[in-house]
Every structure is written in C-alpha cells, then in structure tokens.
Amino acid sequence: MxxxxxxxxxxxxxxxxxxxxSVAETADEAANTVELDQTRVGRLSRMDALQQQAMSQESxxxxxxxxxxxxxxxxxxxxxxxxFCVECxxxxxxxxxxxxxxxxxCIGCASALExxxx
Length: 118
Prior knowledge:
mainly alpha, metal-binding, zinc ion binding, TraR/DksA family transcriptional regulator, zinc-finger
C-alpha cells in the first residue's frame, strides 16, 4: 500500500472546518427557544417552529461532532500519525480517507464498532 501524504488532506480538513463554522454562525438563531405565547402564534405555527428547532439542534450537534473529528485529524497530522487507525494502528485505506479525511478508523475497526460487543 502506498504511503499517505497528509498534506493532501490537511487543506480539505481546514476548508471543511471553515465551512462548518460559517454555517454554525448563521444557523444559531434557528436553534433558539421557541416562544409558546398562544396569543401571538397559532398552534400549528408553534408545532412547525418546534420541529424546525429540533432539526436545527440536531444539525448543530452533528456539526459539533464533525468539528471535533476534524480537530482530532489535524492533531494526528501534526503528530505525524495521520492515516493510521486510532484503534489498531493499521493504515487506513486511501479511498476511505478520500471520502472522509477525518476518518479515525480502518474499515475493520469501524465494522467491529458498528457490530458492537458480542
């Protein structure tokens, strides 16, 4: 297997981080608490607002999780450990990193994690 060049992925990680931060700054308002004053807003409008709020909060959670994975990947690049599984130490397939440069696990460890214990 050819050795992975971390510089190839570093800029993609940095660009994705900037994109996520930009989206987070504009999306914060949608996750705010919904006003439940029935005299000002009808029931269906409140239900719609609550649904929008829940979707926004889930998107925010996913962005935060991805930002964390990106920060960890950038740390691995600085530590010269990028491209190797954090569980078993084996090389992560380059095709896997091409899809998700923040991927911390090889396919074997990721599959084992999905299956769970047992």
